[in-house]
Write a structure and sequence with these properties.
Elements lengths: L15 H14 L5 H8 L8 H15 L4 H15 L7 H9 L4 H11 L6 H10 L1 H11 L5 H9 L12 H5 L5 H7 L5 H15 L3 H8 L7 H10 L1 H5 L3 H6 L8 E9 L2 E3 L3 E10 L5 E12 L5 E13 L4 E9 L11 E9 L2 E11 L1
Parallel strand pairs: 2-8
Antiparallel strand pairs: 1-3, 3-6, 4-5, 4-7, 7-8
Helix pairs in contact: 1-2, 1-4, 2-3, 3-5, 4-6, 5-6, 5-7, 7-8, 8-9, 9-12, 12-13, 12-14
Length: about 375
């Protein structure tokens, strides 16, 4: 992909064209709205701002140009919500509530209940959890029973201990039990959108309180396909760490009884941006069927010369007695915002049911 073909930066969700549409649509709803002033404020120093800064500046610009009465301002934004037609851009509405509605609890809860249907209010609700935890959480517990999947998801997503792009909820990192009623209510939700949030919420908890998660989910009905899906994805971090309890809960058969007949990474030497392929062949040495969770780990060379381990999913298989399985996967080795590569030898491990069974590697040249 050339630079000209590259996807636009996320911050361009709030570009001048969209802010212009905000202005014109709001003016159509509220004839007294000063669209020109809103646009001047919302586009101030726009090029220098990141996506979350643009989001906040847009909300601040609405506050400066909407009615000063909070309830009246919400009426305008309620009418604007279905006109935005973009999920992330619509987050400006709950952002407005987070900034200016904390002294109007009931009005704000009703507003977030509405706005989350257009663009998630997961970031905004956390400000209310910080200010009045018990009162806000009680509302969210009720939301977990809502008919609308977006509202149910908000109950889980907004109360995650470690929500990406937002601040951590330190009280829930220390003690995640207050959100248990939400997770219990949603543990077999029919909506994949909701189930993904529940799994991510539980996965957050495993990073600080793994025993709490294991104790909770081991009592859930794994015969329910929706619940089983949540548990499998909730335990992904523990599975990658080889946690025997997590592996057992997702159905692995414990210590793998296999021999590794072949494991290699090709090519043995690459330059940044090239593709590597992992090939393996394993053979059962067991007298009964085995369910095997197969991962691989890459030890990325760090700037100082040490290595950082990253575990990737490879495959889950059932292996019959005396059977063999051919395994293969490839990936491009390139820089990301979250990972910068450095030259050197990168060890690669084959991991089956949490146990390292073979080692290979590749040399990276920049």
């Amino acid at each position: 992909m050339t630079e000209a073909q590259a996807a636009p930066a996320l911050k361009e969700i709030f570009d001048r064209a969209r802010l212009g549409r905000f202005a014109s649509e709001t003016a159509a709803i509220a004839p007294g709205f000063d669209a020109e002033r809103f646009l001047l404020l919302a586009t101030d120093n726009l090029d220098a701002l990141g996506i979350m800064q643009r989001l906040r500046q847009t909300a601040v610009s609405f506050q400066a140009t909407l009615p000063t009465n909070y309830g009246e301002a919400l009426e305008v934004l309620d009418a604007l919500a279905p006109r935005i037609n973009h999920g992330f851009a619509s987050i400006v509405l709950p952002e407005f509530v987070a900034l200016y509605g904390q002294d109007h609890f009931d009005l704000s809860m009703r507003a977030l209940h509405n706005f989350t249907r257009y663009g998630s209010a997961e970031f905004a609700i956390r400000h209310f959890l910080l200010r009045d935890f018990e009162r806000t959480l009680a509302v969210m517990v009720n939301w977990a029973e809502d008919d609308n999947e977006h509202v149910r998801r908000l109950a889980s997503e907004g109360s995650r201990p470690r929500l990406p792009w937002s601040f951590n909820l330190k009280a829930l990192i220390a003690d995640p039990s207050p959100t248990a009623p939400i997770l219990e209510a949603l543990k077999s939700d029919t909506s994949l959108y909701v189930r993904k949030s529940v799994a991510n919420h539980l996965n957050d908890i495993t990073k600080d309180n793994p025993d709490r998660v294991i104790e909770r989910v081991k009592g859930w009905d794994m015969q329910n396909a929706h619940t089983a899906w949540i548990v499998k994805h909730a335990l992904r971090t523990l599975v990658k760490k080889g946690d025997a309890r997590a592996l057992h809960l997702i159905g692995s058969t414990g210590t793998p009884r296999v021999s590794v007949e072949h494991f290699a990474v090709k090519p043995a030497r690459i330059h940044l941006g090239a593709r590597i392929t992992l090939d393996a062949r394993i053979a059962s040495t067991a007298s009964s069927d085995q369910k095997l969770v197969i991962d691989y780990a890459v030890y990325y060379v760090k700037k100082a010369g040490s290595a950082s381990k990253k575990v990737f999913k490879l495959k889950e298989i059932e292996l019959a007695p005396s059977a063999r399985a051919e395994l293969s996967i490839s990936q491009v080795v390139r820089d990301f915002t979250t990972r910068k590569h450095h030259a050197g030898h990168h060890r690669v491990e084959l991991i089956v049911n949490g146990e390292i069974l073979a080692t290979s590697g590749f040399d990276l040249a920049l």
